[in-house]
Q: What sequence folds into this?
C-alpha cells in the first residue's frame, strides 16, 4: 500500500466513523418514533373500545394541550422552570462550596457531618407545608424546597470527590512549594469537577420533582398546580396532559444536562 493510500484511508476514517454514528442515531430515533406511535395507537383503540373514563384518549389529550398552549400553559411552565432554576443555582452553589470546604477540613467535617446527615434523613416532602406557612403561596417556598434538595445532592457528591483525591498528589504539589490557595485552584477544584457535575446532573430531575411537589400542595401557578386542579376535578384528560408536559420538561432538562456535561468534560474524550 502506497503512502498516499494510507493517508487517504486515515483521513477517511473519522469521516466514516461520524457517518456511522449519525446513521445509528437516526435508526434509534426512527425506532423510538415507531414505538411511540404504536403505543399511542393501541391506547387510542383500547380506550375507544373499552371506555376511557380513567385513561382518557391521546386525541383528547392533544386537544387539551392545544387549548392550553393558546391559554396560559406557558405561564405555568415558566413558573415551574423559574423555581427549578433559581433553586438549582442557590442549592448547587452552596453544595459545591460547603462540600469543598468540609472535604478539605476533616475536623470540621467530623463535627458537622452528623448534623448534615440528620437533616438529610428528614423526608423533604414533610418540609413543604412548613415552608408554605413561612413563605406563603408564591415562588419562595418552592424555591427553598428545591434549594434544599439540590444542596444535599451536590454537597455529598462534592464531598466524596474531594475525599477521593489522591493524597500523594497533594503532597507532591506541596513539596513543589504550592500554597493552599494554589492547591485548591490547581488540584482540588479540577479533580472534583467530574463529581460536581455528576451531582448537578443527578440534582436536575430532583429539582423539577421538588418544584412540582411544592406546587401540588399549594400554589397559584405552576405545572404542579395545573395537575392538582385537574385531579381535584377528576379531569383525567387534564391530568394526563399535565403529566405529559412534565415529562417533556424532564426530557429537556436531561438533554441539557447531558450536553453541558459533554461540553465541560470534553477533555475526557480527548484523553480517551
A:
Amino acid at each position: 500500500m502506497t503512502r498516499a493510500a494510507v493517508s487517504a484511508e486515515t483521513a477517511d476514517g473519522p469521516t466514516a466513523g461520524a457517518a456511522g454514528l449519525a446513521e445509528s442515531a437516526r435508526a434509534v430515533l426512527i425506532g423510538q418514533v415507531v414505538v411511540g406511535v404504536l403505543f399511542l395507537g393501541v391506547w387510542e383503540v383500547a380506550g375507544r373500545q373499552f371506555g376511557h373514563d380513567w385513561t382518557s384518549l391521546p386525541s383528547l389529550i392533544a386537544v387539551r394541550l392545544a387549548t392550553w398552549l393558546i391559554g396560559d400553559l406557558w405561564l405555568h411552565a415558566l413558573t415551574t422552570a423559574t423555581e427549578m432554576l433559581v433553586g438549582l443555582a442557590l442549592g448547587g452553589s452552596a453544595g459545591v462550596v460547603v462540600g469543598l470546604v468540609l472535604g478539605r477540613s476533616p475536623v470540621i467535617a467530623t463535627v458537622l457531618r452528623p448534623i448534615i446527615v440528620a437533616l438529610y434523613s428528614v423526608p423533604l416532602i414533610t418540609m413543604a407545608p412548613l415552608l408554605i406557612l413561612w413563605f406563603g403561596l408564591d415562588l419562595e417556598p418552592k424555591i427553598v424546597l428545591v434549594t434544599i434538595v439540590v444542596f444535599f445532592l451536590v454537597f455529598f457528591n462534592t464531598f466524596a470527590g474531594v475525599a477521593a483525591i489522591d493524597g500523594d498528589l497533594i503532597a507532591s504539589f506541596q513539596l513543589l512549594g504550592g500554597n493552599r490557595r494554589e492547591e485548591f485552584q490547581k488540584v482540588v477544584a479540577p479533580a472534583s469537577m467530574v463529581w460536581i457535575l455528576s451531582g448537578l446532573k443527578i440534582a436536575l430531575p430532583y429539582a423539577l420533582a421538588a418544584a412540582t411537589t411544592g406546587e401540588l400542595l399549594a400554589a397559584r401557578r405552576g405545572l404542579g398546580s395545573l395537575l392538582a386542579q385537574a385531579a381535584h376535578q377528576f379531569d383525567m384528560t387534564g391530568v394526563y396532559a399535565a403529566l405529559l408536559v412534565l415529562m417533556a420538561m424532564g426530557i429537556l432538562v436531561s438533554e441539557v444536562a447531558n450536553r453541558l456535561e459533554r461540553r465541560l468534560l470534553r477533555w475526557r474524550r480527548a484523553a480517551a
